[in-house]
Write a structure and sequence with these properties.
The chain is of the alpha+beta class and 270 residues long. Helices cover 54% and strands 13% of the residues.
């Protein structure tokens, strides 16, 4: 059997990554290796879990070294509208996920897409998901200013087992580093339950009270789901979804999703 020189280089690089599992430069070394095979413009390694904001392990540095304000807005609450976050809560499984596979029908028409994704991620995103347990998902996301092509996706799919295995093996060292820095390990944050936070904000700013079902419908609307998609996710009829939408707009005194998105943003900043 003939082994290509490129295959030898890949296996050597993976061996070096295994050696770097307990080192601070692990993430930079991993994305540097991936960048030799697939072009991307941004990356972030984080953990998703229900009822808690994402915990960032590492991210690509800004050009001037300053914090990315758009990404800070994401961590405060916009992640709730992220197709990848929603998919990770609905599917407890490891794998490689493409934006086209997880994005709702009307994603590109949403305020989230226009105000955040289009500006921060730009064109396309692909994510390695390592399911740690029923609730926690360790993710490595690669954002690109260009659409990923079939050849790039095929290559990432081929190396997916290696990448996911490396993510899983890296986690204990992340937890050990945070413990040594006296950082709480994924501590529950005040107001982490987005429904409670949003309901309180709406009550204070609008004097209105939305039901739990209306809050769910509103969030899925903002994420880009059609009435049929919302009905399927919540196991209700499309007509019931339309009734909930009507009640949301009436209670809040609004006429557009843009206004609803502004209320959502205000709640996350409260």
């Amino acid at each position: 059997m003939t082994i290509a020189l490129q295959d030898i280089a890949w296996h050597r690089s993976v061996a070096q990554l295994i050696e770097a599992l307990d080192r601070p430069n692990f993430w930079a070394q991993l994305v540097r290796l991936l960048g030799q095979y697939v072009s991307f413009d941004s990356w972030v390694a984080l953990q998703f879990s229900s009822g808690q904001r994402p915990h960032v392990f590492a991210e690509c540095p800004a050009e001037d070294g300053s914090p990315d304000q758009l990404f800070q807005d994401y961590l405060k609450g916009l992640y709730l509208l992220d197709p990848f976050y929603i998919a990770s809560r609905e599917r407890s499984q490891s794998g490689l996920f493409r934006l086209a596979e997880v994005a709702p029908e009307h994603f590109e028409l949403t305020e989230y897409y226009q105000r955040y994704f289009r500006l921060n991620v730009v064109a396309d995103e692909i994510q390695f998901n390592c399911q740690l347990d029923q609730d926690r998902t360790l993710c490595l996301s690669l954002g690109s200013t260009q659409r990923y092509g079939a050849e790039q996706i095929a290559l990432l799919s081929t190396i997916q087992p290696w990448v996911i295995a490396l993510l899983r093996q890296r986690l204990p060292f992340e937890l050990a580093e945070r413990t040594s820095d006296n950082e709480p390990v994924i501590a529950q944050q005040p107001g982490a339950d987005w429904r409670i936070q949003l309901e309180a904000s709406v009550q204070q700013s609008r004097g209105a009270q939305l039901t739990a079902r209306e809050l769910d419908v509103g969030r899925l609307m903002l994420s880009g789901c059609s009435s049929k998609e919302i009905a399927r996710k919540l196991d209700i009829s499309a007509e019931t979804v339309r009734v909930h939408k009507k009640h949301i707009y009436s209670k809040l005194g609004i006429k557009s999703q843009s206004e609803l998105f502004s209320i959502f943003l205000q709640a996350q900043s409260a």
